[in-house]
Amino acid sequence: MRGRVAVVTGGTGALGQAIVARCLAAGASVWVPWVVEAEHQALLARFKGEAAGHVEARKVDVTDEAAASAFTAELVAKTGRLDVLVNTVGGFAGGDLLSTSVADWERMLRLNLTSAFVACRAALPHMVRARYGRVVNIASRAVVPPGGGFIGYTVSKAGVITLTQALAQEVRAQAITVNAVLPSTMDTPANRQAMPDADRSGWVTTDQVAAVVAFLAGDDASAITGAAVPV
């Protein structure tokens, strides 16, 4: 990805930071929209020194179309290009259908699906004009096949897979690839806290997931589009 410009939504989180690190190592400059100040500070602390010159962070709600469009317009005005979009923004809520409120349902759709939709709408015009682009969305291995007990999360993440497959067909002729990565349970501080007694031997690391994302975002994956890759 040398010389490329990438956007990593959710780049302040555990997986997002691992993806940012992979993109930087591959030679890209990375722009990160953020919402939570503490996570923004963690990002700055991790990528300081030489790497800091290749990371730009802006406070942006990527579920807000106007804010996402303004953020994208700023980075294109500054860099002249937008080559890679990785959508990692998301959240989890448990609950079957009868225990899931409309508010919780809409929150899962907004965080997991609308965020990817809005970010893609902001990025795609620039990729179409350049006739080049890589879009990688983060879905979940837990929704293939769909499970019960967390219906808002399941439906929203399954929607990310369908969005990926449909968009891949829409932009194939413009040399833009769109793929999804489906992590199983990741070894993150949040998951360790939520499941302190779980057997972590089968968990994947954020770096393992980020390696797959970086491959799909690079030139070697030009023949792959519409894929849903479990990790």
Describe the structure.
- With 231 residues, the chain is an alpha/beta fold.
- The protein has a single domain, classed as NAD(P)-binding Rossmann-like Domain (Rossmann fold, 3-Layer(aba) Sandwich), CATH 3.40.50.720.
- Helices cover 45% and strands 16% of the residues.
- The protein is built from 7 helices and 7 strands.
- It has helices spanning 14-25, 37-46, 65-79, 102-130, 151-171, 189-194, 206-216, and strands at 5-9, 29-34, 55-59, 84-87, 133-138, 176-182, 228-230.
- It has a 7-stranded parallel β-sheet, with helices on both faces.
- Helix 4 packs parallel to helix 5.
- The longest helix has 29 residues, at 102-130.
- The chain is globular.
- It starts with a strand and ends with a strand.
- The model has no long low-confidence stretch (mean pLDDT 95).
Layout of strands and helices, then pairs:
Layout: E1 5-9, H1 14-25, E2 29-34, H2 37-46, E3 55-59, H3 65-79, E4 84-87, H4 102-130, E5 133-138, H5 151-171, E6 176-182, H6 189-194, H7 206-216, E7 228-230
Parallel strand pairs: 1-2, 1-4, 2-3, 4-5, 5-6, 6-7
Helix pairs in contact: 1-7, 3-4, 4-5
